[in-house]
Amino acid sequence: LAAHSPTMFAALFLGITAFLYFSSYYLWTTFVFLRAFLFGKQAYSPLDKTYYRSRVGLRDLDYYGHVNNASYLTILEYARWDWWVRMGLLPFSIKEGVLPILAGVRIRYRKELRPFQPYTVCCRVACCDDKWVYVEQTIECHGELCTVALIKIVLKQGHKTVPLKKLWARAWPQKPLDAQPADVWERVNLTMNDELLGPSDASTSPSPSPSP
């Protein structure tokens, strides 16, 4: 038994490492849910901005030593789950069996993120209609814009599409969602400027809520 101890220890170590590596997405998503639910400041109105803060990890990096382009999409997903909880939509989506499904992404990479740098992801609803929800997301590091993206989401209850306004009315009965015209997808496709949506859209958003 003693002769096999180093081999057994190495196999156990590799097994645990592999488990943590391949399950890290689920573990981190659970952590995001718990942190937002227990410590996150709930938004004051449906169109408030929310702020998700984290730090670049080793698994986010590629061989160039900066955050891989695909890792940005994972970071944005974590931030959207944080936004979903802070909007107060999670309990109702679980009860009604409604899930947000990603339908499209338009993204621009402005500045790289290096190992262990802190970053902040800002999320807000840009506009929506009876089918699609458009969420604007930006990633900043030390006050500099690194990434800007527009996310296209559809809410599904099984195979049935659920308008965001229906779910929103359950979470925010006193503050109905004032949906803006959902032409932003086409405008972004044409312009794709640094602010993505431009100052006219930013002016429709209320002041940001305090962050934890």
Helix content: 25-40%
Number of helices: 7
Total strands: the figure is 6
**Which residues form runs of ≥5 with pLDDT under 50?**
197-212
Average pLDDT value? 79
- Distance between termini? 52 Å
Radius of gyration over alpha carbons? 20 Å
Report the portion of residues in β strands: 25-35%
N-to-C order of helices and strands: HHEHHEEEEEHHH
General shape: globular
Largest sheet: 6 strands, antiparallel
Structural class: alpha+beta
Could you walk me through the main structural features you see in this protein, from its secondary elements to its overall organization?
The protein contains seven helices and six strands; from the N terminus they run ααβααβββββααα. It has helices at 5-22, 24-39, 69-86, 90-96, 164-171, 184-191, 199-202, and strands at residues 50-55, 99-109, 118-128, 132-141, 144-157, 160-161. Strands 1, 2, 3, 4, 5 and 6 form a six-stranded antiparallel β-sheet that branches. 37% of the residues lie in helices and 25% in strands. Strand 5 (144-157) and strand 6 form a beta hairpin. Mean pLDDT is 79; it is low at 197-212. With 212 residues, the protein is an alpha+beta fold. Helix 2 (24-39) packs parallel to helix 3 (69-86).
